[in-house]
Amino acid sequence: CRHSKTGGSNGAAMRHSGEGDWEANAGLWRAMDLLEEVKENHPEVSSYADLWVFAAGVAIEEMGGPRIAFTAGRRDKNAADVLDWTTEHAPDGRLPSADMDTVENTAKHIRSVFDRMGFDDQEIVALCGAHTLGRCHANNSGYHGPWTYSPAMFSSEYFRNLLEKEWTQKTTFYGKPWTGNPQYEDATRELMMLPSDIALLRDPAFRKWVELYAADEPRFFNDFARAFAKLMNLGVVATHDEDRPTEAQMGTVHLEHIVT
Fold first, then answer.
1. Considering the entire predicted model, what is its pTM?
2. Is 142 in contact with 181 (CB distance < 8 Å)?
3. What is residue 34's three-state secondary structure?
4. pLDDT tens digits along 109-153
5. CB 128 within 8 A of CB 196
6. What is the CA radius of gyration of the chain?
7. How far apart are CA 199 and CA 141, in angstroms?
């Protein structure tokens, strides 16, 4: 948060109950487990927080996306040091929700969450473009399906799909009534969109960036790389300890530092 100077990628708090139990983080333990071997084989990686952030950038680049600038120096937190951000009105702490009942409320919610972190509409839409990757799993999130036909390739297909396909409320699932969270599907029923995705389409200020990124993939790559690096550096304070290099000393870490 840019006001309280709390939160961000520092701490690796998902290792602990509380943040690790939030519904929005369901299933992420699989990725954390996969990275355990990397952590064991590379003792020079001093924190899980650094490893998770660097791994995210490596994954994006390996899937054809832009290189993400990386700065080391995050510190892991013990369970006792993790703040409790969960409230009655925010059961997942300060994470964005995919649905706030109406398009207007969902768009307002998205802005509220990201404005608190210092992001404008353009950066918000660029970051939402990460939905070009992966898929939802009903057993984890209550949503089902991929956003694109190439969920392991970083591209602007997500934005093109938003604009070019007709999206209707999902009502069935393999011939039976859909019992998951409200979501949208295309005519083939193979692709999906969350209510928050549709909010980007229907909110005029968001939509103009959707249209730009659908038409200009290099611009999307460039804007996403900047916004994602900014997101990953929130809450990270440059230190001057002998064992903690500053950003100026570290510069951009290259892929081969970890994966070779």
1. 0.85
2. yes
3. helix
4. 999 999 989 999 999 999 999 999 999 999 989 999 999 999 999
5. yes
6. 19
7. 19
